[in-house]
Write a structure and sequence with these properties.
Blueprint (H helix, E strand, L loop, with lengths): L1 H25 L2 H29 L9 H9 L4 H25 L9 H26 L7 H13 L4 H24 L14 H34 L9 H8 L6 H24 L3
Length: 285
Amino acid sequence: MVRLHTPARRYGRGSTHSRSAARRAAGSPVMRALARIGLAARGLLYIIVGWLALQIAFGHSRQQADRTGALHTIAGTRLGGILLWVLVVGFFGLALWRLSEAAYGTPAAGGHKTSTRLLQLARAIFYGFVAYGMLKYALGTGGPQSSNQQSVDLTAAALKYPGGKLVVVLIGLGFIAGGVYLAWKAWKRSFRKHLQTGQMSPRTRKVVDWLGTAGGIARGVVFTTAGIFLVVAAVRSQPSRAKGIDSALRALAATPLGPWLLALVALGLIMFGVFSWCLARWFRY
């Protein structure tokens, strides 16, 4: 009987050891610092994008409400040079943090699964791409394309190939599904499992819940809207109908609710930015 149970016990110890290794890797002082700087940088970017979108809603700005517009806005401030490098370090930090979780798994339950690691790897690649564009901009050797132009160019390139239309449709449906999932997760407040809520006062906990819920739903709306335009662009074979974040936000102002819907989503993006700062402070590493 003892021999029959030995493999299971060994497997259990291995699984526990794997989770412990993941917890040590992701929770090391270096990774905690990188994660906090990265989450704070992400929060700053969302706040600026939301602020630009809020100004667009009431006709007070022609700046694009996306990552490129945010970088131009930051560069135009007194501390622009410093803030740009903070963003570069922050997003490279996010990339390294997610890469470590892809390699070792996350401390959360099920964090060592292949699907979870692949998700973290995808995030690491995305943040690395964003950080590289920011680095070029900070060095003055170029800058990221606007999200609108990127969407149009990539859609046009894909539609030139056989099966390209199907690929674009699938990507658009992926954006829609991702947006709905983000909004649903925010509504269910699943972000709580990533927060050290025990370190918050009851009032702070309520505020963080409010920020995470509203901010997550706003992100979901933007992703879903961009996905819808991708599907339409593919079905009609018109790449110009593909929309980046900026155009997706502006499209909200063309709804029957007018600029008020855009203003509401813009406020939600600002709230998500503040929520990212809360994550930087109370994230459960």
